[in-house]
Amino acid sequence: MDKDKIRQALIKMLGKEKVLSEELDLMYYSYDSSFLTKLEPVSPLAVVFPRSTEEVQNIASFAFENNIDIVPRGAGTGETGGCIALKGGIVLDLSTWDEIVEIDAPNMQVIVRPGVIHAQLNQELAKYNLFFPPDPGSSQMCTIGGMVANNASGLRAVKYGCTEQYILGLEVVLPNGEVITTGGVKARCIKNVSGLNLTKLMVGSEGVLGIVTRIRLRCWPKPKARGIAMAVFDNLDEAPAAVLDIYQAGILPSGIEILDSSAIDAVNQFKPEINLPQAEAILLFEVDGNPPSVEYEGSVIKEVVGKRARSVEWATEPRRMAELWEGRSITATAAARVRADASRVFAGEDISVPLSRVADTLRAIRALGDKYGIKVVNYGHIGDGNVHTAPVINPENPEEVKKVMDMVHEIHLLAIAMEGSTTGEHGVGAVRRQYAELEHGRAAQLMRDIKRVFDPRGTMNPGKLI
Amino acid sequence: MDKDKIRQALIKMLGKEKVLSEELDLMYYSYDSSFLTKLEPVSPLAVVFPRSTEEVQNIASFAFENNIDIVPRGAGTGETGGCIALKGGIVLDLSTWDEIVEIDAPNMQVIVRPGVIHAQLNQELAKYNLFFPPDPGSSQMCTIGGMVANNASGLRAVKYGCTEQYILGLEVVLPNGEVITTGGVKARCIKNVSGLNLTKLMVGSEGVLGIVTRIRLRCWPKPKARGIAMAVFDNLDEAPAAVLDIYQAGILPSGIEILDSSAIDAVNQFKPEINLPQAEAILLFEVDGNPPSVEYEGSVIKEVVGKRARSVEWATEPRRMAELWEGRSITATAAARVRADASRVFAGEDISVPLSRVADTLRAIRALGDKYGIKVVNYGHIGDGNVHTAPVINPENPEEVKKVMDMVHEIHLLAIAMEGSTTGEHGVGAVRRQYAELEHGRAAQLMRDIKRVFDPRGTMNPGKLI
Predict the structure, then answer these.
(1) Which CATH number fits domain A223-428: 3.40.50.10420, 2.40.160.100, 3.40.462.10, 3.90.79.10?
(2) B244 bridge partner residues
(3) Which residues of B fall within a CB distance of 8 Å from A249?
(4) Is the ipTM of this complex over 0.90?
(5) C-beta separation of A401 from A39 below 8 A
(6) CATH T-level topology, domain B100-221
(7) How many alpha carbons fall within 13 Å on the CB side of residue A102?
(8) CB of B439 closer than 8 Å to CB of A185
(9) Is A222 part of the contact surface with chain B (CB cutoff 8 Å)?
(10) pLDDT of chain A, 466 residues: tens digit per residue
(11) Interface test with B, best of A181, A192, A449 (most B CBs within 10 A)
(12) What is B223-431's CATH number, 3.40.50.300, 3.40.462.10, 3.10.290.10, 3.40.50.2000?
């Protein structure tokens, strides 16, 4: 079937206002936030904006019958090319389908359509003293559908885990247009061990098994208080050791973030008035809970971490907390500005290693930066070993591009050698597929066999994950 | 292949001491804790005690080549017939393979073989100030392998979730004898979103996809303090309402248990000196955390729940906590003794409903008891809507058996009608398979298709789950 016929069929099916087919419009959909799509953008042959399960089913059936690739997309904040139609195909932009169907406060859950924005959902839930704990950096932009596809997490995974922990059930349109409901067709219970856990299989499947059209999410009581500690270290190895001490003291902070010396420099260069202390590492601990608990944990952190750190400051006053956190919150932006003629690329940016290997990993990444002559800024979620590396290069310079791609490959291999993973939260997408065998061995084949059950024609977001 | 040849081959493979083939010994393996196996016990054709992955692989290969069913078994504490070889077959008793391979405290995880007992594991972890939070009632007997197979939970799921939340990776022997590792072949990181989540697909799969031979578990810092509140209600509807009030107050207790009037009567009849107050319901709240947090949450529970309850008692002193908890801890035993000539049967014992439907559900179950003339005792994990129903009958009386089976079927249908599930934590096994279509609709077929990927010959624990 040729492009024009496909576009006409889609317009006939959905109406003109729900179909994009102008090349300029389509170009926007050749990008997500990955470096890959900056290097090799590919436009889809059409973009559609379905707003009902039936519309998604119709699109899927049509694509299935005509052997056309389909690719679901949320807000496009992903860093792996996961929402790109690599060989052309129809992109389903679900970001406008942003209905909060029901907040069922008595049953501690909420039902949403895939396009709801994370921050928006938590704003609504707050009215009921509830929240959805995972906290990705892209909270203001990313969609719940995208979070489900990527099993997103972010700053609070130490205590609250990843998205999957909160997903009670999903409505999924299969590649052939059929629809299933996981977690029980009509269920709205919290606990359910009936049947194979298709819900958890879908979460993190990056759109290669089907299109999520409805999400039933568990919510938690919103904690009443919060506190932040900033600890400054002269010795990098003391930072993960201090994290472990805190766990040993019986405390599970909601987040523990690290800025190594490269990130401290980047922040100070970008915004000198923040004036972070020169150090090998800065740790930020966030604890939440009821007010006496937060107060107590703050005093323990000051005492326990104080034995290893040059200094520890503890704050519960909102303005001071914001100041302490500011360095961390602008790190990603600051990293992009460490070289005037260059920008940060999202590649090799998300490895995960055991806590005991974090210090060695950071040193090894710095050494790789030196080896390739590439400026690298390191920060991340040290509480669960999730390291964010920001290589900064001039993407117009082919030599630098070649070097950074080689370096990123070494970072990925480093992660595996450190008993970690190439991706802690951003996902595999198109950019980390090559490591499937190395990470999963024989299980990688099993994953492909499972995909075939869902997607016998291989038209569902092909070229991703496995 | 005839029985004797199979047994001889197994003895040749494993040695005589690792194979049972005497009918008397095998009879023991015709039971778990389900009512089904009391009614229709089926002996396996052999029981083997593998103690290495290679031995499990050899058994699986042999069974696969000769088309013999294989069934993994832990401690046999399940209530669904999940570990029974329904048509004969080889049972792999994994309970003697109980090695704690490694406690990796710096990385907050532990690696175990499937036969490790839950309570034993937590005893070892306590030495490192760590714990594995799920807390099944059978803690002293059940194995971690069994917990993984059933995605077990128990008293603490309100705050800490189910087993799946803690499983980082599994070694699994497939039905054909191949071995895979989920969660990364060599990984020991906490966060990992690479590939399809086979780990979570395996958890709760009740041994129908493969045999779990190694488990990598995430541990949590062990809380330093604990407190218990007992609240007495004159009105059943006030009990779930009080639970919701507590969530609204920002508190997530580690457990919230209910005894309705039937359970209160059973306890008082069994052990009069406990002398629980006569009431429509008793709730027990357990909170844990740091000492000031526990103290604070106790005072909030007293105040908030006090508005709905006849009385609330709060305790942090170990002896008094044990006294308050005793009624709950002997409920299961007490339920079995409410009729001199009868005993409790494990059937329809584990439905899960939304919190908002708990009171109606308990009333409906009592009405069913009246309709069938069967004594029924209700208790359970009200915090997550998981209701445990104990029908008490004389299992030697065919008429009572017929009646209880009819009643149990109605209880299962009730659960689905209440937007719940037939099983919150005990699993499907052989006894709740008939509800797969009703609970999962089209998804049930997809589950069977996935099973076929793992188990093309249908020899892996057949007749269970789906």
Answers:
(1) 3.40.462.10
(2) none
(3) 221
(4) yes
(5) yes
(6) 3.30.465
(7) 11
(8) yes
(9) yes
(10) 899 999 999 999 999 999 999 999 999 999 999 999 999 999 999 999 999 999 999 999 999 999 999 999 999 999 999 999 999 999 999 999 999 999 999 999 999 999 999 999 999 999 999 999 999 999 999 999 999 999 999 999 999 999 999 999 999 999 999 999 999 999 999 999 999 999 999 999 999 999 999 999 999 999 999 999 999 999 999 999 999 999 999 999 999 999 999 999 999 999 999 999 999 999 999 999 999 999 999 999 999 999 999 999 999 999 999 999 999 999 989 998 999 899 999 999 999 999 999 999 999 999 999 999 999 999 999 999 999 999 999 999 999 999 999 999 999 999 999 999 999 999 999 999 999 999 999 999 999 999 999 999 999 999 999 9
(11) A192
(12) 3.40.462.10
What beta strand segments (E) does A107-224 contain?
Answer: 109-112, 130-131, 167-173, 179-181, 211-218, 220-221
* Amino acid at position A264, single letter: I
Mutate to test the interface with B, among A196, A252, A418, A432 (most CBs of B within 10 A): A196
Sign of the torsion formed by the C-alpha atoms of B428, B430, B432 and B437: positive
Yes or no, beta carbons of B252 and A289 under 8 Å apart: no
Q: Which of A105, A189, A195 sits opposite B466 (nearest CB)?
A: A195
How many angstroms separate the Cα of A309 from the Cα of each of A235, A249, A274, A302, A380? 8, 16, 20, 10, 19
Helix (H) or strand (E) holding B221: strand B220-221
Identity of the amino acid at A385 = G
Instruction: Find where tokens 């401690």 sit.
Output: B75
Same fold for the pair A3-94 and A100-221: no
Q: For a pLDDT cut of 90, what percent of chain B falls above it?
A: 98
d(C-alpha B378, C-alpha B392), whole Å: 11
Which residues of B fall within a CB distance of 8 Å from A444? 195
Chain A residues with CB under 8 Å of B303 CB are none
What is the rounded distance in angstroms from the CA atom of residue B241 to the CA atom of residue B236?
9
Strands (E), A326-431: 343-344, 351-352, 375-381, 386-393
- Distance of alpha carbon A97 from alpha carbon A431, whole angstroms: 28
CA angle centred on A340, ends A339 and A341, rounded to 5°: 95
For A246, the enclosing helix (H) or strand (E) is helix A238-248
Tallying the residues shown for chain A, one arrives at 466
Distance from CA of B19 to the nearest CA of A (A): 30
Q: Which amino acid is at B287?
A: V
Identify whether the C-beta of residue B59 lies closer than 8 Å to the C-beta of residue B90.
yes
Q: How far apart (Å, rounded) are the C-alpha atoms in residues A456 and A460? A: 9
At the top level of CATH, which class does the domain A3-94 belong to? alpha beta
A-proximal residues of B, 286-305, CB under 8 Å: 289-293, 295-297, 300
- Rounded to a whole number of angstroms, the distance from the CA of B429 to the nearest CA of chain A is 9
Report domain extents, chain A. 3-94, 100-221, 223-428
Amino acid at B62: F
Report the alpha-carbon angle B111-B112-B118, nearest 5: 120
